[in-house]
Amino acid sequence: MHRILVWTGKGGTGKTTTTANLGPELARLGYRVLLVGFDPQGDLETTYGVDDENRSIVRVEQLLAGGVDPVGSIQSIELPGYPGSLSLLPCSPDLNGAIAGLARRRFTDLDVLLEHFDGIMDVALIDTQGALSAISHTAARAADSVIFSMEPGTYEYHALSRRLAEIEDIKRDEGWAIDPLGILFVRCDSRSRHMREYREHFADVDAFGEDIAVFDGHIRQQTSVREHPRMGKPTVLAAPSSNVAADYRALAEELVARMTASDAS
Ligand SMILES: Nc1ncnc2c1ncn2[C@@H]1O[C@H](COP(=O)(O)OP(=O)(O)OP(=O)(O)O)[C@@H](O)[C@H]1O
Ligand SMILES: [Mg+2]
């Protein structure tokens, strides 16, 4: 199972929106996809209509605590006619407390928990916090590759550059095995002339000892994207003929090509 983290060095850079929309699009391409909520803020959960108060739904922190069958606990999301499948492993604000248990090694690590889904799922997409915290550190340790989502902008460029350097240090010091799949530009204004400049900047950036690629496709700015989670659906399901849905559809195809290339190498 591919374990992909969507990350950056900053908050509000389209991580959750990208995770939530890529899931159904990969299922459309035949993949069995597990969305993993690992941000107690709960935006991925809101996008799929999972309420913090709903105690009947098993959360990732309960699985980390042990004693519950992981595979039987995940939420299946209906996507009629899709050749693949989509499931959700949500978290709740209690994930904050569970992280202390993890630090004391009383809980299973996310890395180990995800092994239960090998052979059952093809891709896990993990959504976490933007900051380098105990939570995002745990998510990154469980991932084998990372998509960096960022808006084209000066602050975002600096935040991502810092994050790349931090990851490189942690990889060296702690032996993290995480590789960059690429940088994704989100919320792009078609009138901006700066996109090309950012692409060129990153074309020269070395990440983890190799060139970091920028995805050919980018995600356009679309005001209605903010409202779709209120319907309990990401944009690709709420407004499948919109620009942003088309952009995520194209991104899923590009991602599959990259995953296939990385499997072959
Ligand atoms: N393509 C888009 N067009 C317009 N708005 C968007 C687009 N993508 C994301 N947004 C909005 O931008 C805001 C930030 O996006 P999102 O929550 O996905 O970022 P995040 O990186 O997960 O944030 P956080 O760090 O808080 O978890 C949200 O209100 C979201 O609805
Ligand atoms: Mg988020």
Mind explaining what this structure looks like?
By secondary structure, the protein is of the alpha/beta class. It has one domain (2-264): Rossmann fold. It has 11 helices and 9 strands. It has helices at residues 15-28, 43-47, 60-65, 70-73, 95-103, 110-113, 134-142, 154-174, 195-203, 235-238, 243-264, and strands at 2-7, 32-38, 75-77, 85-89, 123-128, 145-150, 179-185, 206-207, 210-211. The strands form 2 sheets. A 7-stranded mixed beta sheet has the order 3-4-2-5-1-6-7, with helices on both faces. A two-stranded antiparallel ribbon has the order 8-9. It starts with a strand and ends with a helix. The mean pLDDT is 90. Residues 15-16, 39, 43, 127 line the site of magnesium ion (MG).
Order of the strands making up the biggest sheet = 3-4-2-5-1-6-7
Q: From the helix content, strand content and strand pairing, which structural class follows?
A: alpha/beta
CATH superfamily: P-loop containing nucleotide triphosphate hydrolases
Small molecules held by this entry: adenosine-5'-triphosphate, magnesium ion
From the spread of the alpha carbons, the general shape counts as globular
Helix content: 40-55%
Quick one: how many beta strands?
A: 9
Distance between the termini: 16 Å
Residues in β-strands, percent: 15-25%
CATH class: Alpha Beta
Strand count, sense and barrel status of the largest sheet are:
7 strands, mixed
Order of H and E elements: EHEHHHEEHHEHEHEHEEHH
Indicate the CATH topology.
Rossmann fold
Tally of helical segments? 11
